[in-house]
Design a protein that fits this description.
One of its GO terms (cellular component) is plasma membrane. The protein has helices at 3-38, 40-65, 67-76, 80-106, 108-114, 119-132, 136-151, 155-178, 188-213, 228-262, 264-301, 304-331, 333-338, 348-381, 386-410, 414-441. The protein has 451 residues and is an all-alpha fold. The chain has two domains: 10-226, no CATH class; 237-444, no CATH class.
Length: 451
Protein backbone atom coordinates (compact mmCIF):
# COMPACT_ATOMS: atom_id res chain seq x y z
CA UNK A 1 0.00 0.00 0.00
CA UNK A 2 1.28 3.50 -0.89
CA UNK A 3 1.53 6.34 1.61
CA UNK A 4 -1.52 7.89 -0.05
CA UNK A 5 -3.40 4.64 0.33
CA UNK A 6 -2.55 4.55 4.01
CA UNK A 7 -3.77 8.14 4.41
CA UNK A 8 -7.10 7.32 2.74
CA UNK A 9 -7.58 4.17 4.82
CA UNK A 10 -6.81 6.00 8.06
CA UNK A 11 -9.17 8.84 7.11
CA UNK A 12 -12.05 6.46 6.30
CA UNK A 13 -11.55 4.56 9.53
CA UNK A 14 -10.79 7.61 11.65
CA UNK A 15 -13.54 10.04 10.63
CA UNK A 16 -16.40 8.29 12.48
CA UNK A 17 -14.11 7.89 15.49
CA UNK A 18 -13.16 11.57 15.37
CA UNK A 19 -16.83 12.54 14.99
CA UNK A 20 -17.78 10.45 18.01
CA UNK A 21 -15.02 12.00 20.14
CA UNK A 22 -16.02 15.51 19.04
CA UNK A 23 -19.67 14.84 19.88
CA UNK A 24 -18.64 13.56 23.32
CA UNK A 25 -16.47 16.63 23.80
CA UNK A 26 -19.41 18.85 22.82
CA UNK A 27 -21.24 17.71 25.96
CA UNK A 28 -18.56 19.13 28.25
CA UNK A 29 -18.14 22.16 26.01
CA UNK A 30 -21.84 22.98 26.30
CA UNK A 31 -21.60 22.95 30.10
CA UNK A 32 -18.57 25.26 29.98
CA UNK A 33 -20.03 27.73 27.46
CA UNK A 34 -23.46 28.03 29.06
CA UNK A 35 -22.15 28.29 32.61
CA UNK A 36 -19.63 30.85 31.34
CA UNK A 37 -22.61 32.89 30.14
CA UNK A 38 -24.27 32.38 33.53
CA UNK A 39 -21.32 33.52 35.70
CA UNK A 40 -17.54 33.29 36.14
CA UNK A 41 -17.81 31.63 39.56
CA UNK A 42 -20.05 28.92 38.10
CA UNK A 43 -17.60 28.49 35.20
CA UNK A 44 -14.70 28.07 37.63
CA UNK A 45 -16.71 25.57 39.71
CA UNK A 46 -17.71 23.39 36.76
CA UNK A 47 -14.09 23.45 35.51
CA UNK A 48 -12.97 22.10 38.87
CA UNK A 49 -15.86 19.63 39.17
CA UNK A 50 -15.43 18.44 35.60
CA UNK A 51 -11.77 17.59 36.18
CA UNK A 52 -12.65 15.76 39.40
CA UNK A 53 -15.46 13.74 37.76
CA UNK A 54 -13.41 12.96 34.65
CA UNK A 55 -10.50 11.51 36.64
CA UNK A 56 -12.84 9.00 38.30
CA UNK A 57 -14.70 8.30 35.06
CA UNK A 58 -11.52 7.51 33.11
CA UNK A 59 -10.28 5.06 35.75
CA UNK A 60 -13.56 3.15 35.47
CA UNK A 61 -13.41 3.71 31.72
CA UNK A 62 -10.34 1.47 31.53
CA UNK A 63 -12.58 -1.46 32.45
CA UNK A 64 -15.00 -0.41 29.71
CA UNK A 65 -12.24 0.00 27.12
CA UNK A 66 -11.03 -3.55 27.81
CA UNK A 67 -14.27 -4.84 26.26
CA UNK A 68 -13.31 -3.79 22.73
CA UNK A 69 -10.38 -6.18 22.05
CA UNK A 70 -12.10 -9.06 23.84
CA UNK A 71 -15.32 -8.64 21.84
CA UNK A 72 -13.35 -8.27 18.59
CA UNK A 73 -11.47 -11.52 19.25
CA UNK A 74 -14.66 -13.41 20.10
CA UNK A 75 -16.42 -12.01 17.03
CA UNK A 76 -13.59 -13.21 14.78
CA UNK A 77 -14.19 -16.71 16.17
CA UNK A 78 -17.97 -16.45 15.77
CA UNK A 79 -18.35 -16.97 19.52
CA UNK A 80 -21.55 -15.12 20.46
CA UNK A 81 -21.55 -16.65 23.93
CA UNK A 82 -18.18 -15.13 24.79
CA UNK A 83 -19.30 -11.77 23.42
CA UNK A 84 -22.20 -11.84 25.87
CA UNK A 85 -20.00 -13.00 28.76
CA UNK A 86 -17.37 -10.31 28.16
CA UNK A 87 -19.87 -7.48 27.85
CA UNK A 88 -21.88 -8.63 30.85
CA UNK A 89 -18.82 -8.74 33.10
CA UNK A 90 -17.80 -5.32 31.82
CA UNK A 91 -21.18 -4.01 32.95
CA UNK A 92 -20.72 -5.74 36.31
CA UNK A 93 -17.28 -4.25 36.92
CA UNK A 94 -18.17 -0.70 35.91
CA UNK A 95 -21.26 -0.82 38.16
CA UNK A 96 -19.04 -1.89 41.07
CA UNK A 97 -16.61 0.90 40.30
CA UNK A 98 -19.47 3.40 40.14
CA UNK A 99 -20.54 2.41 43.66
CA UNK A 100 -17.01 3.00 44.96
CA UNK A 101 -16.72 6.34 43.15
CA UNK A 102 -20.06 7.62 44.42
CA UNK A 103 -18.68 8.31 47.90
CA UNK A 104 -15.90 10.50 46.48
CA UNK A 105 -18.45 12.38 44.36
CA UNK A 106 -20.95 12.90 47.17
CA UNK A 107 -18.37 14.07 49.72
CA UNK A 108 -16.19 16.00 47.28
CA UNK A 109 -16.20 19.35 49.13
CA UNK A 110 -13.79 18.38 51.95
CA UNK A 111 -11.52 16.70 49.39
CA UNK A 112 -11.44 19.86 47.24
CA UNK A 113 -10.80 22.04 50.30
CA UNK A 114 -7.98 19.70 51.35
CA UNK A 115 -6.49 20.22 47.89
CA UNK A 116 -6.37 23.97 48.49
CA UNK A 117 -9.42 25.15 46.57
CA UNK A 118 -11.27 28.31 47.61
CA UNK A 119 -14.34 27.54 49.78
CA UNK A 120 -16.88 29.29 47.52
CA UNK A 121 -15.71 27.49 44.36
CA UNK A 122 -15.31 24.15 46.17
CA UNK A 123 -18.85 24.46 47.58
CA UNK A 124 -20.37 25.14 44.16
CA UNK A 125 -18.37 22.32 42.57
CA UNK A 126 -19.57 19.91 45.28
CA UNK A 127 -23.21 20.93 44.70
CA UNK A 128 -22.78 20.10 41.02
CA UNK A 129 -21.07 16.75 41.73
CA UNK A 130 -23.79 15.59 44.15
CA UNK A 131 -26.19 15.78 41.22
CA UNK A 132 -23.97 14.99 38.22
CA UNK A 133 -22.34 12.10 40.11
CA UNK A 134 -25.44 9.96 39.60
CA UNK A 135 -24.57 10.01 35.91
CA UNK A 136 -21.43 7.96 36.59
CA UNK A 137 -23.39 4.68 36.43
CA UNK A 138 -25.14 5.20 33.06
CA UNK A 139 -22.04 6.92 31.61
CA UNK A 140 -19.83 3.90 32.32
CA UNK A 141 -22.43 1.48 31.00
CA UNK A 142 -22.71 3.55 27.84
CA UNK A 143 -18.93 3.34 27.48
CA UNK A 144 -19.02 -0.47 27.90
CA UNK A 145 -21.73 -0.84 25.27
CA UNK A 146 -19.96 1.54 22.89
CA UNK A 147 -16.82 -0.57 23.24
CA UNK A 148 -18.90 -3.66 22.53
CA UNK A 149 -20.29 -2.09 19.34
CA UNK A 150 -16.88 -0.77 18.25
CA UNK A 151 -15.42 -4.25 18.76
CA UNK A 152 -18.03 -5.42 16.26
CA UNK A 153 -16.95 -2.56 13.92
CA UNK A 154 -20.31 -0.81 14.30
CA UNK A 155 -18.78 2.64 14.69
CA UNK A 156 -21.49 4.61 12.85
CA UNK A 157 -24.14 3.90 15.48
CA UNK A 158 -21.66 4.87 18.21
CA UNK A 159 -21.25 8.23 16.46
CA UNK A 160 -24.99 8.88 16.14
CA UNK A 161 -25.78 7.93 19.73
CA UNK A 162 -23.10 10.36 20.89
CA UNK A 163 -24.54 13.10 18.66
CA UNK A 164 -27.97 12.45 20.20
CA UNK A 165 -26.43 12.81 23.67
CA UNK A 166 -24.84 16.16 22.76
CA UNK A 167 -28.18 17.50 21.50
CA UNK A 168 -30.07 16.34 24.60
CA UNK A 169 -27.42 17.90 26.85
CA UNK A 170 -27.57 21.25 25.05
CA UNK A 171 -31.37 21.38 25.29
CA UNK A 172 -31.33 20.39 28.95
CA UNK A 173 -28.68 22.96 29.82
CA UNK A 174 -30.48 25.77 28.00
CA UNK A 175 -33.70 25.01 29.83
CA UNK A 176 -32.41 24.27 33.33
CA UNK A 177 -29.42 26.61 33.74
CA UNK A 178 -31.25 29.75 32.63
CA UNK A 179 -34.88 28.80 33.33
CA UNK A 180 -35.98 28.88 29.67
CA UNK A 181 -39.19 27.34 28.25
CA UNK A 182 -40.91 27.52 31.62
CA UNK A 183 -38.27 25.45 33.42
CA UNK A 184 -36.89 26.61 36.80
CA UNK A 185 -33.62 28.58 36.75
CA UNK A 186 -31.23 26.21 38.54
CA UNK A 187 -27.80 27.45 37.44
CA UNK A 188 -25.02 24.94 38.03
CA UNK A 189 -27.47 22.39 39.52
CA UNK A 190 -29.42 22.54 36.25
CA UNK A 191 -26.24 21.62 34.36
CA UNK A 192 -25.81 18.61 36.65
CA UNK A 193 -29.40 17.44 36.08
CA UNK A 194 -29.00 17.85 32.31
CA UNK A 195 -25.84 15.73 32.40
CA UNK A 196 -27.59 12.87 34.22
CA UNK A 197 -30.58 13.00 31.85
CA UNK A 198 -28.19 12.94 28.88
CA UNK A 199 -26.42 9.81 30.11
CA UNK A 200 -29.69 8.02 30.82
CA UNK A 201 -31.06 8.82 27.34
CA UNK A 202 -27.80 7.60 25.78
CA UNK A 203 -27.96 4.37 27.76
CA UNK A 204 -31.56 3.69 26.72
CA UNK A 205 -30.67 4.35 23.07
CA UNK A 206 -27.64 2.02 23.02
CA UNK A 207 -29.48 -0.77 24.89
CA UNK A 208 -32.45 -0.59 22.51
CA UNK A 209 -30.11 -0.74 19.51
CA UNK A 210 -28.17 -3.71 20.88
CA UNK A 211 -31.29 -5.69 21.75
CA UNK A 212 -33.07 -4.94 18.45
CA UNK A 213 -30.18 -5.26 15.99
CA UNK A 214 -28.01 -7.86 17.74
CA UNK A 215 -30.48 -10.14 19.54
CA UNK A 216 -28.19 -13.15 19.06
CA UNK A 217 -25.88 -11.81 21.76
CA UNK A 218 -28.65 -11.68 24.40
CA UNK A 219 -26.58 -9.28 26.46
CA UNK A 220 -28.85 -9.30 29.49
CA UNK A 221 -29.61 -12.99 29.48
CA UNK A 222 -28.99 -14.35 33.00
CA UNK A 223 -27.37 -11.01 33.79
CA UNK A 224 -27.44 -11.73 37.52
CA UNK A 225 -25.17 -14.79 37.25
CA UNK A 226 -21.46 -14.24 38.05
CA UNK A 227 -18.85 -15.37 35.52
CA UNK A 228 -15.59 -15.24 37.44
CA UNK A 229 -13.38 -16.53 34.60
CA UNK A 230 -14.44 -13.72 32.26
CA UNK A 231 -14.52 -11.27 35.17
CA UNK A 232 -10.81 -11.96 35.65
CA UNK A 233 -9.99 -11.49 31.96
CA UNK A 234 -11.74 -8.14 31.80
CA UNK A 235 -10.07 -7.04 35.03
CA UNK A 236 -6.59 -8.07 33.88
CA UNK A 237 -6.83 -6.03 30.68
CA UNK A 238 -8.89 -3.15 32.04
CA UNK A 239 -6.89 -2.19 35.11
CA UNK A 240 -3.66 -1.24 33.24
CA UNK A 241 -5.70 0.83 30.78
CA UNK A 242 -7.47 2.53 33.67
CA UNK A 243 -4.16 3.30 35.41
CA UNK A 244 -2.76 4.79 32.19
CA UNK A 245 -5.87 6.93 31.89
CA UNK A 246 -5.55 7.93 35.55
CA UNK A 247 -1.96 9.10 35.20
CA UNK A 248 -2.85 11.39 32.29
CA UNK A 249 -6.18 12.83 33.38
CA UNK A 250 -4.97 13.32 36.96
CA UNK A 251 -2.12 15.43 35.59
CA UNK A 252 -4.70 17.72 34.03
CA UNK A 253 -6.78 17.56 37.20
CA UNK A 254 -3.73 18.61 39.23
CA UNK A 255 -3.14 21.51 36.85
CA UNK A 256 -6.74 22.66 37.43
CA UNK A 257 -6.12 22.50 41.19
CA UNK A 258 -2.98 24.64 40.79
CA UNK A 259 -4.89 27.17 38.69
CA UNK A 260 -7.50 27.23 41.46
CA UNK A 261 -4.76 28.29 43.90
CA UNK A 262 -4.19 31.34 41.68
CA UNK A 263 -7.84 32.43 41.94
CA UNK A 264 -11.26 32.17 40.33
CA UNK A 265 -10.41 34.22 37.22
CA UNK A 266 -7.24 32.24 36.33
CA UNK A 267 -9.16 28.99 36.89
CA UNK A 268 -11.95 30.18 34.59
CA UNK A 269 -9.41 31.19 31.91
CA UNK A 270 -7.73 27.79 32.31
CA UNK A 271 -11.09 26.07 31.82
CA UNK A 272 -11.62 27.92 28.53
CA UNK A 273 -8.10 27.14 27.27
CA UNK A 274 -8.48 23.46 28.20
CA UNK A 275 -11.79 23.24 26.35
CA UNK A 276 -10.30 24.75 23.19
CA UNK A 277 -7.22 22.51 23.35
CA UNK A 278 -9.45 19.49 24.01
CA UNK A 279 -11.49 20.19 20.88
CA UNK A 280 -8.51 19.71 18.61
CA UNK A 281 -7.21 16.83 20.73
CA UNK A 282 -10.37 14.89 19.81
CA UNK A 283 -9.00 14.72 16.27
CA UNK A 284 -5.70 13.30 17.55
CA UNK A 285 -7.62 10.83 19.72
CA UNK A 286 -9.63 9.61 16.72
CA UNK A 287 -6.42 9.21 14.71
CA UNK A 288 -4.88 7.34 17.65
CA UNK A 289 -7.79 4.89 17.72
CA UNK A 290 -7.49 4.38 13.96
CA UNK A 291 -3.75 3.82 14.44
CA UNK A 292 -4.45 1.11 17.01
CA UNK A 293 -6.74 -0.73 14.60
CA UNK A 294 -4.39 -0.39 11.63
CA UNK A 295 -1.31 -1.39 13.65
CA UNK A 296 -3.24 -4.29 15.14
CA UNK A 297 -4.13 -5.57 11.67
CA UNK A 298 -0.49 -5.37 10.55
CA UNK A 299 0.64 -7.01 13.80
CA UNK A 300 -1.71 -9.93 13.17
CA UNK A 301 -0.16 -10.43 9.74
CA UNK A 302 3.39 -9.77 11.06
CA UNK A 303 3.73 -7.17 8.30
CA UNK A 304 6.41 -4.76 9.49
CA UNK A 305 6.73 -2.59 6.32
CA UNK A 306 2.97 -2.03 6.25
CA UNK A 307 2.96 -1.09 9.94
CA UNK A 308 5.91 1.27 9.54
CA UNK A 309 4.30 3.11 6.63
CA UNK A 310 1.01 3.42 8.46
CA UNK A 311 2.72 4.74 11.61
CA UNK A 312 4.59 7.38 9.60
CA UNK A 313 1.42 8.49 7.81
CA UNK A 314 -0.74 8.77 10.93
CA UNK A 315 2.01 10.71 12.73
CA UNK A 316 2.29 13.15 9.83
CA UNK A 317 -1.51 13.56 9.80
CA UNK A 318 -1.43 14.36 13.51
CA UNK A 319 1.35 16.91 13.01
CA UNK A 320 -0.66 18.57 10.22
CA UNK A 321 -3.66 18.91 12.52
CA UNK A 322 -1.37 20.40 15.19
CA UNK A 323 0.03 22.94 12.73
CA UNK A 324 -3.45 24.12 11.76
CA UNK A 325 -4.64 24.39 15.37
CA UNK A 326 -1.47 26.28 16.36
CA UNK A 327 -2.15 28.91 13.70
CA UNK A 328 -5.78 29.25 14.80
CA UNK A 329 -4.91 29.57 18.51
CA UNK A 330 -2.23 32.20 17.90
CA UNK A 331 -4.27 34.21 15.39
CA UNK A 332 -7.76 34.16 16.90
CA UNK A 333 -7.10 33.91 20.65
CA UNK A 334 -9.39 36.74 21.84
CA UNK A 335 -12.41 35.85 19.62
CA UNK A 336 -12.17 32.22 20.73
CA UNK A 337 -12.05 33.13 24.42
CA UNK A 338 -14.90 35.60 23.88
CA UNK A 339 -17.18 32.72 22.87
CA UNK A 340 -17.17 31.53 26.49
CA UNK A 341 -17.75 34.82 28.32
CA UNK A 342 -20.49 37.47 28.04
CA UNK A 343 -19.44 40.96 26.88
CA UNK A 344 -20.73 42.56 30.08
CA UNK A 345 -18.79 40.22 32.38
CA UNK A 346 -16.87 42.40 34.91
CA UNK A 347 -13.80 40.13 34.72
CA UNK A 348 -13.77 39.95 30.91
CA UNK A 349 -10.55 41.95 30.46
CA UNK A 350 -8.68 39.84 33.03
CA UNK A 351 -9.96 36.58 31.53
CA UNK A 352 -8.93 37.69 28.03
CA UNK A 353 -5.45 38.70 29.23
CA UNK A 354 -4.79 35.43 31.05
CA UNK A 355 -6.55 33.26 28.47
CA UNK A 356 -4.59 34.71 25.54
CA UNK A 357 -1.32 33.74 27.22
CA UNK A 358 -2.61 30.26 27.98
CA UNK A 359 -3.71 29.75 24.36
CA UNK A 360 -0.19 30.64 23.28
CA UNK A 361 1.03 27.75 25.42
CA UNK A 362 -1.84 25.56 24.14
CA UNK A 363 -0.48 26.02 20.62
CA UNK A 364 2.81 24.38 21.66
CA UNK A 365 0.90 21.89 23.81
CA UNK A 366 -0.93 20.62 20.70
CA UNK A 367 2.24 19.46 19.04
CA UNK A 368 3.47 17.17 21.83
CA UNK A 369 0.01 16.03 22.97
CA UNK A 370 -0.85 14.78 19.49
CA UNK A 371 2.43 12.88 19.08
CA UNK A 372 2.15 11.12 22.45
CA UNK A 373 -1.46 10.13 21.66
CA UNK A 374 -0.40 8.58 18.33
CA UNK A 375 2.48 6.78 20.05
CA UNK A 376 0.12 5.24 22.59
CA UNK A 377 -2.21 4.22 19.75
CA UNK A 378 0.40 2.33 17.74
CA UNK A 379 1.88 0.72 20.85
CA UNK A 380 -1.54 -0.63 21.84
CA UNK A 381 -1.86 -1.98 18.31
CA UNK A 382 1.24 -4.15 18.82
CA UNK A 383 -0.06 -5.14 22.28
CA UNK A 384 2.75 -3.31 24.09
CA UNK A 385 1.06 -1.60 27.05
CA UNK A 386 2.82 -2.35 30.36
CA UNK A 387 6.09 -0.49 29.81
CA UNK A 388 4.35 2.42 27.99
CA UNK A 389 2.06 2.76 31.02
CA UNK A 390 5.12 3.27 33.25
CA UNK A 391 6.72 5.67 30.75
CA UNK A 392 3.58 7.76 30.56
CA UNK A 393 3.07 7.86 34.33
CA UNK A 394 6.68 8.94 34.96
CA UNK A 395 6.45 11.60 32.25
CA UNK A 396 3.23 13.07 33.60
CA UNK A 397 3.98 12.88 37.32
CA UNK A 398 7.78 12.89 37.67
CA UNK A 399 8.24 15.59 35.00
CA UNK A 400 4.96 17.36 34.18
CA UNK A 401 3.45 18.12 37.59
CA UNK A 402 6.72 19.08 39.38
CA UNK A 403 7.64 21.32 36.42
CA UNK A 404 4.20 22.97 36.54
CA UNK A 405 4.64 23.77 40.22
CA UNK A 406 8.21 25.04 39.84
CA UNK A 407 7.50 27.25 36.81
CA UNK A 408 4.13 28.42 38.07
CA UNK A 409 4.87 29.14 41.73
CA UNK A 410 8.64 29.02 42.40
CA UNK A 411 9.56 31.04 39.30
CA UNK A 412 6.36 33.08 39.53
CA UNK A 413 5.12 32.46 35.97
CA UNK A 414 1.67 31.55 37.37
CA UNK A 415 -0.71 30.14 34.72
CA UNK A 416 1.86 30.23 31.91
CA UNK A 417 4.25 28.27 34.12
CA UNK A 418 1.62 25.65 34.98
CA UNK A 419 0.98 25.09 31.27
CA UNK A 420 4.71 25.03 30.47
CA UNK A 421 5.04 22.13 32.90
CA UNK A 422 2.24 20.27 31.09
CA UNK A 423 4.04 20.78 27.78
CA UNK A 424 7.28 19.37 29.20
CA UNK A 425 5.51 16.33 30.67
CA UNK A 426 3.75 15.53 27.41
CA UNK A 427 6.94 16.13 25.40
CA UNK A 428 8.78 13.64 27.61
CA UNK A 429 5.99 11.09 27.06
CA UNK A 430 6.03 11.68 23.30
CA UNK A 431 9.79 11.11 23.04
CA UNK A 432 9.85 8.00 25.27
CA UNK A 433 6.80 6.37 23.68
CA UNK A 434 7.92 7.01 20.10
CA UNK A 435 11.38 5.69 20.97
CA UNK A 436 9.74 2.60 22.46
CA UNK A 437 7.73 1.95 19.29
CA UNK A 438 10.44 2.58 16.70
CA UNK A 439 13.35 1.28 18.78
CA UNK A 440 11.84 -1.93 20.10
CA UNK A 441 8.17 -2.71 19.53
CA UNK A 442 8.10 -2.59 15.73
CA UNK A 443 11.28 -4.67 15.54
CA UNK A 444 9.38 -7.57 17.11
CA UNK A 445 7.09 -7.61 14.08
CA UNK A 446 8.12 -9.89 11.20
CA UNK A 447 8.70 -8.70 7.65
CA UNK A 448 7.11 -11.50 5.66
CA UNK A 449 5.11 -9.06 3.53
CA UNK A 450 6.23 -6.05 1.58
CA UNK A 451 3.41 -3.70 2.74
Amino acid sequence: MTYGGHARAIAILGLPLIGGHLAQFAIGLTDTVMLGWYGVEELAAVTLAGSYFFILFMVGGGLAMAIMPLVAASDAQGDDTSIRRVTRMGLWQTAMFGLMAMGMLWWSEPILLLLGQKPDVAGLAAEYLRVAGWGMFPALWVMVLKSYLAGLERTQIVLWITVLAAIVNAIGNYALIFGNWGAPELGIIGAGIASVVTQVVSLIAVIVYALKVLPQHALFQRFWRPDWEMFGRVYKIGVPIGLTNLSEVSMFGASAMMMGWLGTVPLAAHGIAVQLASATFMVHLGLSSAATIRAGNAFGRQDRPHMAKGAVVVTVMSLAVSAISMVVFLTFAEPLIGLFVEDDEPDLVAILAIGTGLLGMAALFQLVDGVQAIALGVLRGVQDTAVPMVMAALSYWAVGIPASYVFGFVFGLEGIGVWLGLVLGLACAAVLLMARFWGRSIKRVGAAHTG
